[in-house]
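ok posting inputs for the adenosine monophosphate job
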Amino acid sequence: MNVLLIGSGGREHALAYKIKESKNLGKLFILPGNPGTKSLGQNIEDIDQSEFNAVVSFCLEKKVELVVVGPEQPLVIGLADYLRQNNILVFGPNKNAAEIEAHKTFAKWLMTKYNIPTASYAEFSSIEIDKAKEYVAKLKLPCVIKADGLAAGKGVIICNEISEANRALEEILVDKIFGQSGEKIIIEEFLQGEEASIFAVTDGANFICLPAAQDHKRIGDNDTGKNTGGMGAYSPAPIITKEILNEVEKKIISPTLNAMISEDRKFVGCLYCGLMLTSEGPRVIEFNCRFGDPETQAVLPILEGDFLQLLYSAAMGNLDKNAIKYSGGAAVCVVAASKGYPDSFTKGYEISGLENQTDGIIIFHAGTKEIQNKIITNGGRVLGVTSVIKTNDLKLAKKNVYSALEKINFKDIYFRKDIADKALRKLE
Ligand code: AMP
Ligand code: GLY
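and the output
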């Protein structure tokens, strides 16, 4: 089977790595890919993925039998719809189902209508700023203000004081710091607890959950400083016990997929559930319409079986739940970033130490570029350095990943030193 994978980040490198293991794989194309995916397939750099026609022509010419879409953006603008209209099989939801990530107001409306546990909320448009301020004045603080649309993980502001909330409202609704994405906002109750990410791979009706992961969104150790796209992840997350997973499947994933069918928005692909484990049970913080990054870099390496078969069967509408299994490994992924991220940073520094790593270390490329046989930094999140071991021993996995990082160097390298500590503290 020839496969086209869309995307260029660490998540896509991990997807390519796992798809490549399948005995059913013919050719793997990655559009546009990155220097890491180059060794797993053919990077396609001369086609613009937003030109749907060109993508379809490529698929027909290369006899692509499955398209796997990594990031949300192409899904939100309807790439999957267009491929399906052209009879090309695709793993990833149509535009109307990707709304679950594209518009928080839609996700919250859906959860409210179908009794799916989430934080209580209210929604306001840009002409309702006074009403929004009145609402905040009566709320128990902290509260959480979120832009309705996509904002690359930055559209969430946690407000401890009324003055902060009023400022956030002005910034989003009047100054439009998130542009169109902040045309509407939601104001949410602040949830206390620990976070976890669960990926449900689904054909729309049936689903299978991959081992749970925990992301580390803040830039600094001990969850301090600014929010980022994610600074590291580990899997499995011991906080997701069998009982909790059961509850998440019954009260969140199953009703959400059914709700999407009832609303004529059948969701095919990976439903990412960002959860807060509160004292009253798991609550949804957000849904995403694709695999999470960096979580994918920790979750996929511990799966056994034929991952491509899993994606293919989901895309076919006939999920093969036995295609993959998890039987006891562990992985820790630490993101090596450019100093300054998530704000401004300098690119173009040569990276050393990528070779001669020990077995069990996988270096996923995210923001890198190859120039004259050298790999240089080309983004905020540069590498996802991942250690994978056969036993569920997060302590050893953590030790291994930080040993690997000692060998890697580029100017201005920055990474968190505490990835997986939250789980380790609990296990002690
Ligand atoms: P999101 O982009 O919706 O995942 O939000 C980014 C981060 O903000 C989450 O990972 C949480 O740490 C935090 N967050 C979002 N919503 C809430 C909430 N209702 N209560 C507490 N923290 C939240
Ligand atoms: N790791 C968070 C996300 O993928 O949205």
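notes: The mean pLDDT is 96. The pocket of adenosine monophosphate (ligand 1) is lined by residues 119, 144, 153, 156, 188, 190-191, 195, 217, 227, 274, 285-286 (CB under 6 Å).
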